[in-house]
Structures are given as structure tokens and as C-alpha cells.
Amino acid sequence: MALTSKDKLHLKKFMKDLKSHKALHTEFVTVYIPAGYEITKIIKHLSEEQGTASNIKSASTRKNVQASLEKMIQHLRNFPKTPEHGLAVFAGNVASVEGKQDIRAWSMEPPIPLNIRIYRCDKNFVTDILEEMLIDHEVYGLVVLDRRDAVIALLKGKTIVPLQKTHSEVPGKTRAGGQSSQRFARIREGAYKDHFKKIAEYMKENFLPIGTNLKGIIIGGPGTTVGSFLGKDYITGDIKKKIIGTKDLSYTGDFGLQELLEKSSDLLAEEEVTKEKEAVQDFLKQMLDDHTKVSYGEVEVTRALGMSAVNILLLSEDLGEDKILHFEELAQVGGTEVKIISTETREGVQLKNMGGFAAILRFPIG
């Protein structure tokens, strides 16, 4: 399930608030309630934990844990039932001075249903389950091959992750005639087959364990070689049905992976990496067509946002989480669409080199 920009922003802000607090002792309470689980059972469990907490040796820690549990119980009683996606609940003493008490409680219904139940008391709130929801787990398999070399990789969101390389010692062509020529041809053909079998086996080893998160496989290389590879029964049916397209390439290895990504925009039309490249290209085109309808640099973009003049805001992920979150909040006020651009593409590097801020405007601001 892909999160909307609004979901991601809400989740980031919520976690930032939680992470800003640290307990002086092991006294922050975290509870994750799975979807469909009865909230009354959680309240009963927390009441039992209050009794258990009476055994804590430190008087101040005991007092804070019991108060946090009571705060959480009272907070949960505001819910007639567990929300559709479950509930993440947090409570603790956020006072920064020893001996003082400022007990607070937070909760949120996650954008993705919870399937795990957790109760934990620690110095920090447990947020890794929420953080996991921000990760795009869907990937594409990439295979670049020719008759001597092959590389297998994954496209994770915007990043190419090489997994395995293989090389075949296919003998070169010989000028000998007669039986010698035929014998070398048979040797070469046997080496090709072994090479293709090895590629197919590596594909199976690397791609099958990914399961349903593998959205598809794209294979690139010289057209005739790719045709020969796919035309025989080297690949098993469960891998073959995942192949969504092939591309004729000039390069192999890492350059081949980049070329495959460039040529697969039609297959990856809905993927973030393609959208990112197109977003920066649209900005650069608009700059050439009418420079009054664009803005770049932190100061100018901030000014444009303040005037609600920004239609699309591009932010380099190199800016860092706090800066990005701040500008996402500014953008939300004016109904601006925000696109976070990685530095994994040429266009992303261009944006970074421009300062990391770029905007396509609704109207010129002078």
C-alpha cells in the first residue's frame, strides 16, 4: 500500500514530536494495538502492568511509569473501539528535570493496518514500526546481459542496487576451417548455454525470495542475445511471468544498468524514479520557456511559498529531514504539490547543485 504525501507528512511530524523526547530512566510506555484487537483487553492489560510497576525499586521511576500507564488508560477510554487500522499509543513523563512531572499521551491510527501487538517500557518511544511504513518495499528486478557478461540488480524506489555479476569465458571465433571450425562453434554454443543457465539460476536465487514485493523484471542487452536467452527454456515459469519487458542496449555492466533505467521509462511510468526525472525536466523546460514562472534557491522559494504562488515544489533529499519537513508544512498551507527528488539520477544531481530548492509557479512574482 503506497502512502499519500499527506499520510507521509502526518507520520513524519508525529514521529518527529515523539523523537524529540527522551526519558531520564526506563519509563516511556509504547503500545501498538493491531487492527481488530479489542481495546478493552489492552486497557485491562495496562491496569495489570500498573500493579507490576509497584515492584520498581526507584521511587521516581515507579511513580512516572504508573502515572504514564494511568494517562494511557484514560486516553484509550476515549476510543469506543479500536480504529480500522489499529492504534499506536505513547505516554511518558517528558519533563527534562529530575523530580518534575509532565505526563503526556499521544496516539495515531497508522495509514497502514497494524498486525503486531506490542507493550514496551523504555527510555525512548518505539517508532521503528511507524518508520517502516515510510519505506517503499516494492521493487523491480533488472537484468543486463550479453554473451559474455551479466549483472543482476534491483530497482528500489529510486535506487539501483546491484546484486550479482557473472562472466563467461566464451572462446573467441576462430579462422580455422573444416572440422576445427565446427568444433569451436560447438564449444562456443555450449559456453553460451552454460552462461545463460547461470544467469537464469542467479535470477531465481535473487528474485524469488522477494515474493509479491517484486513488481516485475526488465531484461536488457543486445536484441539478438536477449531473444536467444528468452527463446529457450532457461528461465522457470514463475520467473518468466514476472518479466514485463525487454530493452535493446549498447552497454553492459553498471553503464548498462543506467541505460536500462533510461530506456525503461515507459515500463516504469508510474514509478517514483521516472516521476522524479520528469519533474526536474519539467522545471528546466519551464525555465527555458518562461523564466518568470519558476523560482529556485531557498530564499526565493520561501518568498514564493509565502505568496501562495508555488504550484509544484521540488526539494532535494540532500537537504535533510528537518528542512524538508519544514518546507512540506509551508507547502501544505498554499495547496502546493511537493516532490522529493533523490540524488540517484542526473536530474537529481542538477537540483542538488542548484541549492536543492526549485519551484514551478502559478504566476510570476517579479
Explain what this protein looks like in three dimensions.
The protein has three domains: 5-132, Translation, Eukaryotic Peptide Chain Release Factor Subunit 1, Chain A, CATH 3.30.960.10; 139-269, Nucleotidyltransferase, domain 5 (2-Layer Sandwich), CATH 3.30.420.60; 273-361, Ribosomal protein L30/S12 (60s Ribosomal Protein L30, Chain: A), CATH 3.30.1330. 28% of the residues are buried. The chain has twelve helices and 13 strands. It has a five-stranded mixed sheet, with helices on both faces. The model has no long low-confidence stretch (mean pLDDT 91). Helices cover 42% and strands 22% of the residues. It is an alpha+beta fold and 366 residues long.
